[in-house]
Amino acid sequence: MRALEAEEEQIPLICEKEFGSYRFDPGWIEVESESVDPYLYTYCPEEASDSSDSPYYMTVSCEPYDIDNIGQFSSEHYPLLAEKYGEESIEPGAYIVTDDNTGISMITFEITAPDVHIYQWNEFYDRYHVTFELTINDEEIALQDNIVDRSSTTAWSLRYE
After folding, report:
1. What residue ranges do the domains of the chain occupy?
2. CA–CA separation, 135 vs 6, rounded Å?
């Protein structure tokens, strides 16, 4: 029985949504009560019942966005984050083309506010962008669970496919 439980724990959470699919490491669940189909989804470790109960959680959202306007995204998005968390809390990242074959572009933000640390990355496609936002409410537990080091799409097991 124990071997079966260990085997079940190794299954990743694969999420297939209208705008695409992505996956999480084993041990994550979708919080259906906080997800708004078809464009906003919340995930947390299976030990927690919802994001307010969790030391960290992830939201994934999709919005229409014309790739031709990517240069304006940071200047449009930054003031919204500054208003919510305070300008001094935000460290904007760089515009990055992650893959020559796919042409996926990404803009990242790191937000360090009192009692919360947020890593946000925005991936841009032809007519929409997908925002992945990792919110950490308990830095110590996130460090123990090796979540903090997984804050970029290149290092974290969350993959948009």
Report:
1. 11-91+98-154
2. 27
pLDDT tens per residue, range 54-89: 999 999 999 888 878 887 887 888 888 888 888 888
The CA angle 33-148-86, to the nearest 5 degrees, is: 75
Positions of the chain with pLDDT under 70: 1-10, 93-103, 148-161
Between CA 151 and CA 26 the distance in angstroms is 17
Q: Which among 40, 43, 36, 35 has a CA at the least distance from the CA of 12?
A: 43
- How many whole angstroms separate alpha carbon 106 and alpha carbon 153? 10
CATH number of 11-91+98-154: 3.40.1000.10
